[in-house]
Design goal:
Oligomer: single chain
Structural class: alpha+beta
Order of helices and strands: HEHHEEHHEEEHHHHEEEHH
Distance between the termini: 14 Å
Length: 259
């Protein structure tokens, strides 16, 4: 790992559950010499990515807000997809999400939650493994074989736990069936109590970028109605994909690479 990668990996320590870190804690976490960690922290602080708080500790800095604003204004998945996902939620009465492929994970870029949204619903900026759940499965189903093989090799235990197959051929068969149907439905597969229905989003070249999904409680009395929303979901996904392809602020939005 390069020194730049090590420095940026300090940012991975910060989360909603652990928003404040001291220099000593970060040095121990990454097994860095204290002098090296302090040098990295100085650079990240000067860049505005980290901010100092009391007792020499650090939190995420204000530069993150500026970057988030740029992302909201310039990312076609968000800018094109946000009004579509909001309209879909209003029409159906269910919570709706936009997610993108990000390295070996799925990241939520927009959430429209209804009043009866199930607890623990995926929210903007949250990231989870590219295995289990409708939003992930529909992306997996449209990955090129070499990228899917990479995910399989790295996350074989999670794939098995999610019931996607004990081996490579079984995984490919299940994903081929999902791809053929054009949507994925799961109930409690990634998080207990949440049912999801997802369809894929593509760029101009037909590469999968992410997914649009509806979500509800697995105990909802409207679960049958929820599962019948596949046509509406597919229509919304096609609208977003067409909008992305025609977006004036990007020449050709590439698929997010798998690390």
């Amino acid at each position: 790992m390069s020194s730049q990668d090590k420095m940026l990996s300090l940012l991975d320590a910060f989360s909603v559950d652990a928003p404040v870190w001291s220099a000593d804690e970060l040095a121990a976490r990454l097994e860095l010499p204290p002098s090296t960690c302090y040098r990295y922290l100085k650079s990240l602080h000067q860049a505005g990515l980290l901010a100092r708080v009391g007792s020499g500790s650090y939190v995420v800095g204000p530069r993150a807000l500026a970057l988030d604003r740029i992302s909201r204004l310039s990312d076609p998945v968000y800018s094109v997809g946000s009004p579509v996902v909001a309209a879909l939620s209003r029409r159906t009465g269910f919570s709706a999400l936009l997610s993108v492929l990000y390295s070996d994970s799925v990241m939520c870029v927009q959430q429209v939650a209804t009043e009866d949204a199930p607890p623990g619903l995926f929210g903007r900026g949250q990231q989870r493994p590219l295995v289990a759940g409708a939003s992930a499965n529909i992306i997996l189903a449209h990955l090129p074989v070499h990228q899917l093989r990479s995910v399989f090799n790295k996350q074989r235990e999670r794939i098995l736990a999610a019931g996607l197959g004990p081996g490579w051929e079984q995984l490919r068969a299940q994903l081929a069936a999902i791809r053929q149907e054009g949507y994925s439905f799961t109930a409690g597969e990634y998080r207990a109590g949440i049912a999801g229905l997802a369809a894929p989003l593509f760029n101009k070249e037909g590469e999968v970028l992410g997914s649009i999904a509806l979500a509800t409680s697995t105990d909802s009395p409207r679960l049958g109605e929820f599962r019948a929303l596949v046509p509406a979901l597919k229509t919304a996904a096609a609208e977003i994909s067409c909008g992305i392809a025609a977006s004036a602020n990007v020449v050709d939005l590439p698929a997010r690479a798998l690390g």
